[in-house]
Amino acid sequence: MKIVVLIKQVPDTADERTLDPATGWLNRDAGDNIVDEINERALETALRVKDGDKSTEVVVLAMGPEEAAKAIRKALSMGADSGIHILDGSLAGADAARTAAVLAAALKGAGADVIVAGNESTDGRGGVVPAMVAEHLGLPLVGSLASLELAPGKVSGERQGESGTLSVSAALPAVVTVTERSAEARFPNFKGILTAKRKPVATLSLSDLDVPATPAHTVIVSHSERPARTAGTKIVDEGNAGTLLADYLVENRLV
Amino acid sequence: MENLTEDQQSIVAMVRDFATTALAPHAGEWDEAKHFPVDVLAEAGTLGMGGIYVAEDYGGSGMTRTDAVLIFEELAAADPSIAAYISIHNMVAWMVDAFGNDTQRAAWLPGLTAMTDLGSYCLTEPGVGSDAAALSTRAVRDGDHYVINGTKQFISGAGSSALYIVMARTQDNGSHGITAIVVPDGTPGLSFGAEEKKMGWRAQPTRQVVFEDVRVPVTNRLGREGDGFTIAMKGLNGGRVNIGACSLGGGRAAFDKSVAYLKERQAFGGPLIKQQHLLFELADMDTELETARTMLLRAAAALETGDPDTVKLCAMAKRVATDAGFHVANQALQLHGGYGYLSEYGLEKIVRDLRVHQILEGSNEIMRLIVGRLAVED
What we know:
The complex is a heterodimer of chains A (255) and B (378). Chain A has 255 residues and is an alpha/beta fold. Helix content of chain A is 26%, strand content 24%. Chain A has a single domain (2-208), classed as Rossmann fold, CATH 3.40.50. In chain A, the strands form 3 sheets. A 7-stranded parallel beta sheet of chain A has the order 7-11-6-1-4-5-12, sandwiched between helices. In chain A, a hairpin with a 2-residue loop joins strand 8 (147-151) and strand 9. Chain A is globular and about 65 Å long. Chain A starts with a strand and ends with a helix. By secondary structure, chain B is of the alpha+beta class. Chain B has 3 domains: 6-118, Acyl-CoA dehydrogenase/oxidase, N-terminal domain (Butyryl-Coa Dehydrogenase, subunit A, domain 1, Orthogonal Bundle); 120-226, Butyryl-CoA Dehydrogenase, subunit A, domain 2, CATH 2.40.110; 229-376, Butyryl-CoA Dehydrogenase, subunit A, domain 3. Helices cover 52% and strands 15% of the residues of chain B. Chain B has helices at 6-23, 27-33, 38-46, 65-78, 80-99, 102-114, 228-264, 276-305, 310-335, 347-355, 364-376; strands at residues 119-122, 138-142, 145-156, 163-169, 178-184, 190-192, 206-217, 221-222, 266-267, 270-271. In chain B, the strands form 3 sheets. Chain B has a 4-stranded mixed beta sheet. Chain B has a 4-stranded antiparallel beta sheet with strand order 2-3-7-6, with no helix packed on it. In chain B, helix 4 crosses helix 7 (228-264), helix 7 packs antiparallel against helix 8 and helix 9 (310-335) packs antiparallel against helix 10. The longest helix of chain B has 37 residues, at 228-264. Chain B starts with 5 loop residues before the first helix and ends with a helix. The chains are: A alpha/beta (255), B alpha+beta (378). The interface between A and B is medium-sized, with 12 and 16 residues.
């Protein structure tokens, strides 16, 4: 089986994340940039298939600046076989539609049995790119799985909702996304780290891909800093605090 | 840290990740419950920590002594007790790798490097510590076997280990009459004393190992008869650097906690960090740790290249780093005031754990003896 995992380099959520005031784009220099944790879980899904069947080929695909090569390297150190890096200065600031079109163009020739991604990135949090990729490729989207099983020709898994759990399945090829409830990612081992740079990474520019040069459809009109945290709701116990607290939790869907 | 290769940066990042998620959250609880987390050690084994500088053919990671220093610092920043045990285990695995023949390496290294088989190093005896060449545990040749009798003291991992490298006397000619023999767990006549109650290092068991007519095949001998003392000392050169790195990691954790605490703690109209004498204290602590790091990296490089000054540099680095780690941790406790004395703040555990590093792998007095003798020898 050939599995392509989509990975994205994002700012570490442990650091302060900011936007560039001039462009409204992500400020990549503000902190450490790492492989999005949700993508590591997607990769873990693929690597577990490989653990069971060594003939499985796991490829990671990333679109991003030079520095995204580090994210690819991390994925290779965890056990992916090879990487594809779409690197093109004109893609800076690409919106979800543009990103999906470019990723789909790179995936067209890749011959993947399944494409695995996180359900949404921790930076943009649009959660639409995998669906758009599936649409471009004419593949079914099996989205937001908390657990899944990949077998030859078939993916099946569970999607958790507020009111219940759905068991879903699809024939391969398909695009699959996983949630943060899916399998926790492994650490790379020393051998993985030391052999990662010997693994092949293909760097592609837009001219290598059959994708029309369309401008971004979305533009940032304005942006503002997150307001400072204000005091929370205070419940004063007048004998009914328990009820008020329960009501509050239910109302805000916290239970 | 400057001067690290890209691979080393990735290695440090991974070990830090592992240590902060798999060790640090449990360190206090393991200490209190005297729990030896063999499952976590096996997980560390899958990451390559069971044979850091063991050759790759039987599962080792084939990395350098410098890599090992970086790794032990990170592990110890989360839990010095576990880090130190892993360092001892690595010393055992390296001794099998370096002095074992290919049959022995093939038999023992896969389990040791995976850390599914743990290793213990048995040199010290109840009546013989610093004067190791005077050890009295005896191995008598009987056909194709050795019959071992004696008692080993302060043995880390005893009772949990799969393999014990035992230094035993095969001839009565001092350090030249000592032989290194591997005794597998379960060998009849091998037994263990009660778990010692200790000041620190409580997340790893320490017991006596008792040999009563323990018979092992001659093929379990590492190297030749009489090589034991040299093997023991060569193992200790690396062991000293690693234990020093464990002190550095523990000291660094205590230092980082102190910086955070002094910034936050308010007294005399502002945060304590505004008190210049406390700032000077932090400066001294940081300097001591960097001095230790420099010495450790230099000793590690000497081990790696077989520098003629290896013994001296390892002994110096061990003394400097273990003194620095303990002193910094103890000062950090002081800077935390009464809170430092409470287990909840994690300082007193670091102090307790690091204290023994000044005693074992050759006490710091023995380190000075080694350095002094080398300085005056003709």
